[in-house]
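Predicting holo structure, coenzyme A bound.
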Amino acid sequence: MSKALNGYRILDFTHVQSGPTCTQLLAWFGADVIKVERAGEGDATRGQLRDIPEADSLYFTMLNHNKRSITVNTKHPKGKQVLEALIKQCDVLVENFAPGALDRMGFTWERIHELNPRMVVASVKGFGPGKYEACKVYENVAQCAGGAASTTGFDDGPPLVTGAQIGDSGTGLHLALGIMAALLQRQTSGKGQKVLAPMQDAVLNLCRVKLRDQQRLERTGELQEYPQYPDIEFGEAVPRAGNASGGGQPGSILKCKGWQKDPNAYIYFITQAAVWPAICKVIDEEGWITDPHFSTPKARLPHLKMIFARIEEWTKTKTKFEAMDILNAYDIPCGPILSMKEIAEDEALRASGTVVEVDHPVRGKYLTVGNPIKMSDSPTVVTRSPLLGEHTDEVLSQLGYSAADIQALRAEQVI
Ligand code: COA
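Done. C-alpha cells:
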C-alpha cells in the first residue's frame, strides 16, 4: 500500500532524541529518510546506555526505525560534496545540532537555499532568539525553562521533571508538524523555508494551561481547584498542583487494593460534574447528591480533599482494574496507573501496533513504541534501525558515485 509521504526524501542530520523523533515519524509516514552520521562513531546514542555490548543501544534503535544510514565526514571537502549532492536531491533537511554547527560546516540557510531553493530546512534548538539562543540544551533543561518543572510536583517539594520526554520528543513532534505545513505551502509557493522549533517554546506550548492559571491567579488571588485551596495562601506564581487535574473537572490519584506493596496500585479518579450522582451511588454517599455542601461543582471545591479521601476509602477496597470496570459502567472518567511492565504486556497496545516487537541482527528481538498516529490509507510497518553506515554505498551510488569513487572516499576516510 502507498504511504502518505512516499516520494519525499529527508536528509536526516539529527542526533540524540528530539530530531530523530521527528524524522522517525516522517519515515513511518512513508518518506525516504537518509540519516547522515559521523564516519566512525555515528550518532552518540548508538553507544549510550548500552545493555548489550557491541549492539546499538535501545536508545538509538527505538528512535531510528525505518531509516537508512550513511556515514560522511561533512567537515571534509569531499564529504561536503556528498552533502551538497544530498541537499540537491532531498526535500527536507532536518537537524538539531548545537546552535551555529551547521553554519560552521558551511551550510548556512543561504547556501542550502542556493543549492536547492525548494528545500525545507527544519531545526530543533534549545531556545529561540534571545539571551539563551546559543546554549546547548537537553531534555530536562527544556522542561525547566519551559515552565513544566516549576508547575510539577507537590507544594512542599522541589520542582520536578517528568518522565514524559516533552522537551525532546515533544519538540520533535512540533517540528514534524512544521515540516508538513512547509511542504504544503511549497506546493503553491514553489519555495522551501526555514522551520524552527525551540525546545523551551514547545514545552511551554504543552504547559499552556499553566499560563492560563497564572493569569487567573493574578486576577482572583486563588485557584480553587488546586490542592492548596482553601488552606494555604497562594503566592505570586502558579504553585505545584500535585496530582490535581489540569482542567475544570477535579481529579486525583487514589490508592487501590494492594497499594502497600505495589507502587502502582493507584487509579486516577475524576469527579466529573455530569456523573456526580453516579459517584455518590458507587461510594455509598447518596446523601451528597442533594446536600448543598456537595451537590454543585462550586460547593464541592472547598471540600475536595475530604471528598477524595472518602472516594479513596472505596478505591482501597478494589484493585485498580476492578475499580476501572465498576466506574466505567457508570461512565465515570478514571484511569489505572500502569507500570511500564504492564504497558509492555498490554494486548490492546500490541494489537494496535503501538507496542511492537522488532528483530535486530545484532541485538535480536526488542520492544519499541510504534507510530502512535494511525492512518487508514497509510499504515505503518516498523522496520529496524539501520546499522552505522549500512546504506552508504547504496545512497552514494543513487547519487551517481561509481564503485571506484566510493572506494576512494573510503580510503580517504571521508565515509
Ligand atoms: N561529520 C563531521 N562533523 C559532524 C558530523 C559529521 N557527519 N555531524 C556532526 N558533526 C559535528 C558538528 O558539526 C559539530 O561540530 P562543531 O562543534 O565543531 O561545529 C559537532 O559534530 C558536535 O555537534 P553538537 O551538536 O555540538 O553536539 P554535542 O554532542 O556537543 O551537543 C546537544 C549535543 C544535543 C547538546 C546539541 O546538539 C544541542 O544543543 N542541540 C540542539 C538542541 C537539541 O536538540 N537538544 C536535544 C537533544 S535530544
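The first helix runs from residue 18 to 28.
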